[in-house]
# Entry
Amino acid sequence: MIPVQFDYVRATSLNDALKTLAGGDGTKVIAGGHSLIPLLRFRLAQPAKLLDIAGIKELSGISEYKRGLRIGAATTYRDILDSALVRDRYQVMMDATSGIGDVQVRNRGTIGGGVAHADPAADMPGVLLALGASFNLRSKRGKRVVAARDFFQGTFATALAEDELLIDMVVPPLPRGGASAYVSIEQAASGYALAGAAVVVKCSRKTVTECSLALTGLSDRAFLAEAAAKLLVGTKADPDTLQRVGAAAVEGIEITGDIHAPAEYRRHLAAVVVGRAIRAAIDRV
Amino acid sequence: MPTGRITITLEVNGTPRVIAVDPRTTLLDALRECLGLTGTKKGCDHGECGACTVLLDGRRINACLTLAVMQEGHRVTTIEGLASGAALHPVQTAFLAQDAFQCGFCTPGQILSAVGCIAEGRATTRETIREGMSGNLCRCSAYPEIVEAVFLAATQPGSP
# Structure
């Protein structure tokens, strides 16, 4: 039994959910529960009330939106893997999603739950950063759009206010003729990334003309490595360049060290995954 | 103040079951403690070992990672619901034929996971079976036999 007592309510509609959240009584949103239930067990989260949003239809599903994608917050990883839209256009998201947990976890865990939880070693925040996604948030007070780069603010910390609900994530199209990839090195037991790199590239005659690069698992949050991505542009991604890009990607970042991997090892892994992800993306162009 | 018990209906192995549960009760605890269906095992209770795997609306999930109250009106299949009378499910038969267990603790979860794996179309080669079954740990390490059992069940005539 989960030690801390809480109330449970099932939202009947989006409006109903926002009304409950506006109550400001320590309500926590639950959809798949795959991040939250373990936290409740360890008393790391002690909400007074759980608001179940899994039954709100408009929060799940993937649809084409402005030549990109709109992914509902309560969409399961399984539904992402089953989506032809994602498979055809966003290989970086397929790479990352197919490595999250195991089949049982992917059948139930939701992308919005993982994003709102903001585990610093989760795969999807890096992917959404590299893709330049933006998040639609809503509360009784109104709507707002927050870019992925402004959303992740630290370990388990995001731009979401207490009364706000993550509605969906909007992913713009890849540059024409572009390709993408995600490569991570995981902690063996949990499957969380010790270092993960998400890359979007565009090439012309084997020369990189555009690059977006984001990393996860290395510090208190996933982050965009814009200066490093610029170093790649105009090159043929030769091994020396990849080394430089890999080193630049973590410059100025306070790298986490723990029992799974000391900071120096993570720094090494960062260069490894950055190099591999860039190569994998270029090979797909 | 917390609401106390909530009454829910779950369709368990084809039968509607009405239970009153504390919201903190996981689906796993509801099956074992409220309904006496102890075939679903509690291993790690953290979603890592897969011993509590059940089918929820036909998809395999970890019963320890969802609350019973969240599954109001949904269909749950446990190991107790697989056989039809005395006739074992083909996956159960295959596990016996391949001797795919030692202590047996993880076996109900392995079998439910295998049923899901085959239904998803993942059980086509031994390699895809190994990946598709990676959410189920076996501390006795009967993995080679488990893979053979899933492969046998997936490929034999009249397989599920």
